[in-house]
Structure prediction request, 290 residues.
Amino acid sequence: MELRQLRYFVMLAETGNFHRAAERLNMSQPPLTVAIRKLEEELGAALFVRSARGVTLTAAGRASLDMARATLAQADRFREAAHEGAVGERGRLRVGFIGSATFELLPRIIPEYRHRYPGVELVLEESTSVEIARKLVAGELDVGLVRLPLTEMAAVNTTAIDADELHAALPASSPLAQAGIVPLQALAQEPFILQSRISVLHTVTLSACHAAGFVPIVAQEAAQLSAVLALVRSGLGVALVPARAARSVPQDVRLVRLADRVPIETGVALPRTVADPLARNFARIAINSD
Prediction:
């Protein structure tokens, strides 16, 4: 049984006449007659009673007409879903993001993406940049918002979408917390809270301290930026964090600008192999967002 046979059956049932049905189907009558006869033979039941004035449905025809219509409608929905999936308008998109992306990037990108692609299910996963890159390569994520530069870039493509800089995160009780600007060298004797070693911010912080002429005293490491700020709040040490974190800094923590600017960037990352249309659409919105 083929969909075209069901389409012929429904049209003939609606018109009640082979000639009119053939006209509406843009075909000649003989092939339509043959197709309906073959359908009836395959079903083992007559669907129409033929007469000189046209055709009427048999009991089998009446019983199957609604099912035929539903099957054709389902086939149309299938075609539509396949098309929407091919152009990135339907499906499931797995997005990895770093913690600092929640401050501005995600609120900037997600509403626009949902507005343009309401048929896509978004699955968001917070992680480190390096882990996001690894999951993109493994096919466990489709697109990522990562800190640049990535230390593992061999199999992912990245595009910078947001510029920021590091600020010193200090306990509010620290004398330096009241300053409008602080030299990084002034923190040389302070214990540092770093993000874990697989974080890009870990490497950037160490490099900035080395450039300022000292090796930081590492008191603690934490996997996520929120944990780093919580440890600063508890008085365990200081940290270098993105300036955009100012919007989510906990009580009793102050962000102070560094005298020697330490620029950082956030980028959108896609697998270097084959990025699906959903991921490409997300990346395009991320790149073009203001």
